[in-house]
Amino acid sequence: MKTKNKIVISELSLLIVAFIWGAGFIVVKNSLDHITPLWLMASRFSIAAVAVTFIFISKIKKVNKGSLMGGIVCGIFVYFAFAFQTFGVQYTTASKNALLTSSYVVLVPFIFWIIIRTKPKIPQIAAAFMCFAGIAMLMFNGSFGKINIGDVLTLICGLLFAFQISLLGIYSKKYDPIALTIVQMVTCAVISIIVAAFFEDVPKNLGFSSLMSILYLGLLSTCLAYLIQTVAQKYTPPSHASMIMSLECVIGCILSVIIFKDTFTPLMWAGSVLTFLSVILSQKSTRNGTSKAIKSE
After folding, report:
1. Of 206, 272, 273, 282, which is closest to residue 240 (Cα–Cα)?
2. ∠ at Cα 169 (164, 172), nearest 5°?
3. Cα(101)–Cα(104) distance, rounded to whole angstroms?
4. Which residue, 18, 37, 168, is CA-closest to 102?
5. How far apart are CA 227 and CA 54, in angstroms?
6. Which end of the chain is more exposed for a tag (fewer CB within 10 A), N or C?
7. CA-CA distance, 100 to 85, in Å (whole number)?
8. Cβ atoms of residues 171 and 115 within 8 Å
9. DSSP secondary structure letter of residue 61
10. Cβ atoms 105, 242 nearer than 8 A
């Protein structure tokens, strides 16, 4: 298959990830009414780890020292990003949680600068200021002295995802993507089980809807989505990948307004628009530079 076709298929695949994750915001919000955050994460990552290992068991032999270390590092970032996101959504709305998580799109060029010493351009810096201005408008709650703790936790989540996407863009070109996914999911599962067992009681008497939610998060939002992301980033630069996947927040917001009847004030709508404009500006300004940086690796 031609490289150009692989890029198109990869970017279309990442769009599927955005839809899965967008719906995942709603599923997580509903699930937290019946299961504690840490055990929700332990359940989803354990299901994902078992599923991806069972399906691609023949790929285990392709796990070498490089993919093992790369998968562990990415797995650690994924786990803590989800931890901050899951705790954050308990104290803010699903729509704001989705929007603030998307801050990783603007942060990726700066993280890439730290990792491979590629300095961001002026438009990228302008996009960063636009993004944080939009975020400040989203977080405004009568006065900036009353910032919601859920908003802060979600912003940290966005930073961690930026590191994971940047690192995955490098590792996926050096090592087998499926081997990386297996190690990444197993790492998340091990950490999540240990942390959940230490801090929370094991949940009991989960209903059918809760079990279905956990299966959705484990099999689709985690196993399938991260498998697609890892394989797709072999052919898609981190800036492109982050832009496409950021559509999850658009989908999450739409579903949140429809299902939870979330209300956006005019200031929050303005902040949303500004945030998305920054995402577009960041993507356009990083398209060529980031692609060249990746090819040079």
Report:
1. 282
2. 105
3. 7
4. 18
5. 13
6. N
7. 10
8. no
9. G
10. yes
pTM score of the predicted model: 0.79
Pick from 277, 151, 180, 172: nearest CA to 234: 172
Amino acid sitting at position 1? M
Distance CA 267, CA 137 (A): 6
The residue written with tokens 């994460």 in the block is 41
* CB atoms near residue 103 (< 10 Å): 27
pLDDT digits (tens, 9 = 90+) for 38-84: 998 999 999 999 999 999 998 898 899 999 999 999 999 999 998 89
Closest CA to 26 of 254, 270, 235: 254
Place of tokens 């989803």: 44
Q: How far apart are CA 166 and CA 164, in angstroms?
A: 6
Contact between 124 and 286 (Cβ < 8 Å): yes
Which residues does 41 contact at the CB level (< 8 Å), separation at least 6? 79, 82, 83, 86, 188, 192, 196
* CA angle, 236 then 103 then 296, to 5°: 30
**Total count of residues recorded for the chain:** 297
Instruction: Give me the helices (H) in the chain, please.
Output: 3-31, 37-55, 65-88, 94-101, 104-116, 122-139, 149-174, 177-199, 208-215, 225-232, 238-245, 247-260, 266-295
CB 35 within 8 A of CB 203: yes
CA-based radius of gyration for the chain: 18
Amino acid at 165: I
Tokens of 223: 């196993």
Task: Assign 36 a pLDDT band (cuts: 50, 70, 90).
Answer: confident
